[in-house]
Amino acid sequence: MKHSKTLGGLILGGVLALGGSVAFAAENTEGVLEHLNLTVTTTKEALAAAQAGNKEGCLSAIKAAKQHYKELTGAPSGKPAQDAMKLVREGQNACEAGDTAKAVDPLSKAVTGFEKINAEAHAK
């Protein structure tokens, strides 16, 4: 019983430590802007991979873009960002099906959407 309590405490402490640091990054303006920049960058990487016909590169970059998107809070996470992420998902579906050419259009529109959001967020 003593070992299970110790293990439980270690796991809980680890989860809180990891969760606390991730949440902190997106709770301040700098953290949100950083994740927004990274969302733009990784979406551009997905687009470049799709244009090159690189299915795995496209899917890998989309996965990273989605992770950064999840960290957005406040105005940058509103309806325009949700619409851009829908386009990323369309691109993901096309890449998963092996049709990287079909992924180019929605990913291009997603990049445009995220760049606009990024420019507006940095202007404030």
Topology of this protein?
Layout: H1 2-27, H2 29-51, H3 55-70, H4 79-96, H5 100-123
Helix pairs in contact: 1-2, 2-3, 2-5, 3-4, 4-5
Short note summarizing the structure:
This protein has helices spanning about 1-25, 30-50, 55-70, 80-95, 100-124.
Question: Could you walk me through the main structural features you see in this protein, from its secondary elements to its overall organization?
Answer:
- The protein is mainly alpha-helical.
- It has a single domain, classed as Four Helix Bundle (Hemerythrin (Met), subunit A), CATH 1.20.120.660.
- The protein is 86% helix and 0% strand.
- The chain has five helices and no strands.
- The longest helix is centred in the N-terminal third of the chain and has 26 residues.
- The chain starts with a helix and ends with a helix.
- The N terminus is likely disordered.
- It comes from Candidatus Methylospira mobilis.
Quickly name the level 1 CATH class.
Answer: Mainly Alpha
As residue ranges, the low-confidence spans are 1-25
Q: What proportion of the residues is helical, as a percent range?
A: over 70%
CATH topology: Four Helix Bundle (Hemerythrin (Met), subunit A)
CATH superfamily: IL-4 antagonist (De novo design) like domain
- The overall pLDDT average reads 83
Count the beta strands: 0
Count of spatially separate domains: 1
- Structural class of the secondary structure composition? mainly alpha
- Cα end-to-end separation: 54 Å
For this structure, the quaternary state is: single chain
* Number of separate helices: 5
Specify the overall morphology. elongated
Radius of gyration: 18 Å
Based on the structure given, which CATH architecture is correct? Up-down Bundle
For the largest beta-sheet, the strand count, sense and barrel status come to: none
Q: What is the beta-strand fraction? A: under 5%
Strand/helix succession: HHHHH
